[in-house]
From TrEMBL, chains A, B:
<dbReference type="InterPro" id="IPR050596">
    <property type="entry name" value="AspAT/PAT-like"/>
</dbReference>
<dbReference type="InterPro" id="IPR015422">
    <property type="entry name" value="PyrdxlP-dep_Trfase_small"/>
</dbReference>
<dbReference type="GO" id="GO:0030170">
    <property type="term" value="F:pyridoxal phosphate binding"/>
</dbReference>
<dbReference type="InterPro" id="IPR004839">
    <property type="entry name" value="Aminotransferase_I/II_large"/>
</dbReference>
<keyword id="KW-0032">Aminotransferase</keyword>
<dbReference type="Pfam" id="PF00155">
    <property type="entry name" value="Aminotran_1_2"/>
</dbReference>
<dbReference type="GO" id="GO:0008483">
    <property type="term" value="F:transaminase activity"/>
</dbReference>
<feature type="domain" description="Aminotransferase class I/classII large">
    <location>
        <begin position="32"/>
        <end position="385"/>
    </location>
</feature>
<dbReference type="InterPro" id="IPR004838">
    <property type="entry name" value="NHTrfase_class1_PyrdxlP-BS"/>
</dbReference>
<dbReference type="InterPro" id="IPR015424">
    <property type="entry name" value="PyrdxlP-dep_Trfase"/>
</dbReference>
<comment type="similarity">
    <text>Belongs to the class-I pyridoxal-phosphate-dependent aminotransferase family.</text>
</comment>
<dbReference type="GO" id="GO:0006520">
    <property type="term" value="P:amino acid metabolic process"/>
</dbReference>
<protein>
    <recommendedName>
        <fullName>Aminotransferase</fullName>
        <ecNumber>2.6.1.-</ecNumber>
    </recommendedName>
</protein>
<dbReference type="InterPro" id="IPR015421">
    <property type="entry name" value="PyrdxlP-dep_Trfase_major"/>
</dbReference>
<keyword id="KW-0663">Pyridoxal phosphate</keyword>
<keyword id="KW-0808">Transferase</keyword>
Length: 397, 397
């Protein structure tokens, strides 16, 4: 028998996308579905992105250099300087979205069977990339009731074994919206240094912070050797379809390893590297604008949830997600109900069951993730429908 | 000590790119370098590619669906129909270039420590992708003296162990330019079926064949379950910077595995998927034109090499590469000489030492790969310079 690899079999289908058939069926019945399930921004990117791409005038469309088109890499360096992070071009490699940066980071630090610590709940694609690279993710559970605070160092230390190679920190966090500050990062770095671990810090949502200033772990001097930053242009410029991110580190050995992977896959897309140059060089106006917008939405979602009986959540400080604990036994069943049985005036809401953002079995079963990627008006309506849907679901049970 | 992973350390830097500093130094001395080292086509892509991308008028640049934009996938299906291959959309996943298709194929069939058979010389990036996926490549040596003919089944069978999961066939071949016909593919498929192996068939250069008609392994009924095709828009449309390829198979389990990897990385670039739709739907005019051009170049390179004393090569039948055995002990030293010491009327030639296209130590040491990515006039001049350089190098030794 021809069989696929074990690692392929261990990956579960994306939690975000597996309800698509139910959603399509609802739409075919004429039900409008408010989509709060995917982190695909509804906001348009700066027009300059398209304008720059359209100005591309070379007759050929050759490979970009594997370490990136030099003006594009310089633009990332200029971008980081705004956050008081000094990087040379050799410290940055543009990647095919943040996704490739995650995969490359795991491959650079860990061999098959090695362990990497993650704080759950976490962005579910890490599980697939860990499976692809045969790396074992070791979860440390954070809890909504505790505002997703990091555990004490002693608690974290219990998870470190001889096989541990790195700690992953997604900050600002997808899916919880938590933002850890310099002090918390300092304590993770101290632990990493004590145990010779890398810190893979996913800063995809860097600027989307509502009460703090944007920060990068690369600003912390002690992180110089251990930190690897996963970055992306997708969210801060509302351009996930451009498939441009980067991986950055001040550790020369890590950069040498990453460059080998980058050379194997030849290059990140040429047109989008050009298109993003002016955006990276002059990012703050746009990111401030969208952050103000997401903050308004955060307030809408958070206050609506506060009014729903039995719902527990904490006010997210960044990104555009929120984890809410519902008074249900199985949020997957609730999501199915919302798409298949419920509608209010021919409208319903799609959210993501949170279980797949956890590694530990049973956790997140009564939680959902809400991505606030609709404008305030629609979001208010969607939250009202969610409230009605939840009430009807609880009545039925 | 913080150290990078073993798998990163096993990858050697790309053979194609490691002479770049020497090349730049030559150019800084005012020496014109004819570049026959990288498979980056000098020919422009169809204008329709840029025109279509420029017509993109949506305000947003969202993720494409992980299994591809449906019109783009349909365009691949229409493209394959021209070669009498019937595929449903579910049999095709667009990838970020052929590179991602290679990585996904290895991950879908093999776990760490599993073995995959390759015919050497072969496209060197496979080594890096094998290292990244912790898969062991097992080489079967083909020889220029034997016109890179495949070995008898019994010979090949000696390499098959309990850990063997697949056979890789790059057809038309990079770097040798060999094209294996239906009969040869049939015998590989028979062997694969006998031993429960997959056949990963890299058909990046499908149409660039000079004496045969373009063919795909997917046309062979016996390949239905075992074949996985790695494909790319990069060479046939002279658009490697678009980073679009695909992976195709009639095996539903393989497609399910590949889709999981595709979902983890979210999507291939949106704009380029749109841009390639009209090219895929109507490909043959352009590919016939460039193939005629490459054929002329093949003739120029091949006949020039025939006139160089001590050089052995066979007439390539496809792609735009050729492996030539030189009367030198170390082709790497020769390439360095051409870039650092030699010039003829302030011009020189850059080719790729072939050793890195082999796994077996010592093989290819006296061979080079020539990529004929210059027009006929320049190519004639470059071959003349190569001849003079080789003569001077041999004299010096």
């Amino acid at each position: 028998m021809l069989t696929t690899s074990k690692r392929a079999n261990t990956i579960i289908a994306s939690p975000i996308r597996k309800f698509l058939p139910l959603m399509r069926a609802a739409e075919q019945r004429g039900v409008k579905v408010f989509k709060l399930n995917v982190g695909d921004p509804d906001i348009a990117p700066p027009r300059l992105l398209f304008a720059t791409i359209k100005k591309y005038h070379q007759p050929n469309l050759g490979y970009a250099p594997s370490p990136g088109i030099s003006e594009h890499v310089e633009a990332w360096a200029a971008y980081y300087r705004k956050f008081k992070v000094e990087l040379q071009p050799a410290n940055i490699i543009p990647t095919v979205g943040g996704a490739e940066a995650i995969l490359f980071s795991l491959l650079a630090v860990a061999d098959p069977g090695d362990e990497v610590i993650v704080f759950e709940p976490f962005y579910a694609s890490y599980k697939a990339f860990a499976a692809m690279s045969s790396v074992k993710l070791v979860p440390v559970t954070l809890r909504v009731e505790n505002n997703f605070a990091l555990p004490a160092a002693a608690e974290l230390e219990k998870k470190i074994t001889k096989k541990t190679r790195a700690i992953v920190v997604i900050n600002p966090n997808n899916p919880s919206g938590t933002v850890w500050g310099e002090k918390e990062l300092q304590s993770i770095i101290a632990l990493a240094r004590k145990h010779n671990l890398f810190v893979i810090c996913d800063e995809t949502y860097r600027e989307i912070v509502f009460e703090q200033k944007p920060f990068s772990i690369l600003r912390i001097p002690a992180a110089k050797q251990c930190a690897i930053v996963v970055d992306s242009a997708s969210k801060r410029f509302s351009a996930p379809g451009a498939r441009i991110g980067c991986v950055a580190s001040l550790n020369a050995d890590i950069m040498a390893a990453l460059l080998k992977f980058a050379m194997a896959r030849l290059s990140a897309p040429t047109l989008e590297q050009y298109g993003l140059i002016p955006l990276l060089k002059n990012s703050t106006g746009y990111t401030a604008k969208i952050t103000a917008e997401y903050k308004k939405r955060r307030d809408v979602v958070f206050s609506a949830l506060q009014e729903m009986p039995g719902v527990t959540c904490r006010r997210p400080q960044g990104a555009f997600y929120l984890i809410a604990k519902l008074p249900v036994a199985d949020s997957e069943d609730f999501v199915k109900f919302m798409l298949s049985e419920f509608n209010y005036k021919n409208k319903t809401v799609m959210v993501t069951p949170a279980a797949d953002f956890y590694m530990t079995k049973g956790l997140g079963r009564n939680e959902i993730r809400i991505a606030y990627v609709l404008n305030v008006k629609e979001l208010k309506e969607a939250m009202d429908i969610l409230k009605r849907g939840l009430a009807q679901y609880l009545e039925k049970k």
